[in-house]
Design goal:
The protein has about 290 residues and is α/β, with parallel strands linked by helices. The chain has helices at about 5-20, 30-45, 60-75, 90-95, 100-115, 135-140, 150, 155-165, 190-205, 230-235, 235-245, 265-270; strands at about 25, 50-55, 80, 120, 210-215, 220-225, 250-255. The strands form two sheets. The protein has a four-stranded parallel β-sheet with strand order 3-2-1-4, sandwiched between helices. Helix 1 crosses helix 8 (about 155-165) and helix 5 (about 100-115) runs parallel beside helix 6. The relative contact order is 0.15.
C-alpha cells in the first residue's frame, strides 16, 4: 500500500485530533512536539489545547527559552511545570529503562492537568522513533497517552516537510533529547553531571555549532558534531577545548564518526540485548477524555 503523501497525512492528523477534541501536548520545543502543538492549536483552537513543558535539570536551558518563544509566536496556550525525575532512584541509576522512569514522571505531572482539562495527553512521537530503544513510549502508552503523529503515519521527514510547508521555523531545528541521554547506561545521572553537559553544549552552540552532543565519560567529554563541521571544529580547536573545559571536563575528544542520535543505545546490544527489543507501535485507541 502506498503511504499517503504528506498533505494527506496532515489531514489525517487533523482528523485524529478532531476526534480527540481536547488535548494536552507534551511540548519540548523539538521539531515533532512543536509541529504537533501548532497543528493541534490550529485545528482545535487554543482553548482546547494546553501545551506543557516539563522543566527539570535534564532540559537544556536553551530549549526552555525556545518553548517560551514559540508559545508567544504561535499563540499557544502554554505553561511550564516542574518534574523531579532525579528524585527517583531508578532514574538516577541509569539502567536501560531510564527513559521509562522519566516518561512515567512526566505523565504523573501531565495526567492531573489532563483530568482538569478533560483532555487526552498527546506526545510528538513519530514512526521513526518506534525503531529505536525508547522505553519511554511504553510508559506513556501504559498511562493512556496517544501518539497522533504515529497514528497518522508521520515519519521525521514528513514532520519536517510539513512544518516547512506551514512556515514553521522549527522545520530544520536540530534533533534534541534530554541531557541524560548523554550519559552512558550504568553511569549514575546526577544534577552535577547534567549541569556540566548543559554548560558544555551551550558553550559549543555559542561557537556556532548546531547539531551536537557532548557525551559524558567522567572527566572526559566526547564531542559529536555533524561530519560537515568536524573540519571547523579542528580549526577552532583551542576555542572548542576552552568552552568544554570551562564546563568542568579535563579532557576533550572529537568523535570522528560525527553526530549520531541515540548512539549510546548501541552499547546495549552487547550487554543486555535491549536494542533488539524494539518498542511496539501503539495500537490505535478510541478517543477518551481525561486519560493520560
Amino acid at each position: 500500500m502506498t503511504l499517503a503523501a504528506p498533505p494527506e497525512k496532515l489531514q489525517n492528523l487533523k482528523t485524529t485530533l478532531g476526534q480527540l477534541g481536547r488535548v494536552v501536548v507534551a511540548f519540548s520545543g523539538g521539531a515533532d512536539s512543536a509541529f504537533l502543538a501548532h497543528v493541534a492549536t490550529d485545528t482545535l483552537g487554543a482553548d482546547s489545547v494546553l501545551c506543557v513543558t516539563a522543566v527539570s535539570p535534564s532540559l537544556a536551558p536553551e530549549e526552555l527559552d525556545d518553548c517560551r518563544s514559540l508559545a508567544a509566536e504561535w499563540g499557544l496556550r502554554w505553561q511550564e511545570v516542574p518534574t523531579d525525575e532525579l528524585a527517583d532512584p531508578a532514574y538516577r541509576s541509569n539502567d536501560a529503562d531510564r527513559c521509562y522512569h522519566c516518561k512515567a514522571s512526566l505523565l504523573d505531572v501531565l495526567s492531573p492537568l489532563a483530568a482538569v482539562e478533560r483532555s487526552t495527553v498527546v506526545l510528538g512521537v513519530n514512526v521513526d522513533d518506534l525503531g529505536d530503544h525508547r522505553p519511554g513510549q511504553r510508559a506513556a502508552s501504559e498511562r493512556g497517552a496517544r501518539f497522533p503523529l504515529v497514528e497518522s503515519g508521520f515519519s521525521k521527514f514528513d514532520v519536517r516537510q510539513s512544518s516547512r510547508r506551514l512556515g514553521l521555523r522549527t522545520w530544520d531545528k536540530p534533533a534534541a533529547a534530554c541531557l541524560a541521554s548523554r550519559v552512558p547506561y550504568g553511569t549514575p545521572v546526577t544534577l552535577g553531571t547534567l549541569t556540566t553537559v548543559a554548560d558544555a553544549e551551550s558553550g559549543l552552540r555559542a561557537l556556532g555549532f548546531r547539531q551536537l552532543r557532548v557525551r559524558h565519560y567522567g572527566d572526559l567529554a566526547r564531542v559529536e558534531l555533524d561530519t560537515g563541521e568536524l573540519g571547523r571544529a579542528v580549526a577552532m580547536r583551542e576555542q572548542v577545548v576552552a568552552v568544554v573545559r570551562r564546563a568542568g571536563y579535563s579532557y576533550v575528544t572529537l568523535d570522528l564518526e560525527g553526530f549520531r542520535s541515540g548512539n549510546l543505545n548501541a552499547a546495549l546490544a552487547t550487554t543486555t540485548g535491549a536494542v533488539a527489543d524494539r518498542e511496539p507501535a501503539p495500537a490505535p485507541q478510541s478517543p477518551t477524555k481525561g486519560t493520560a
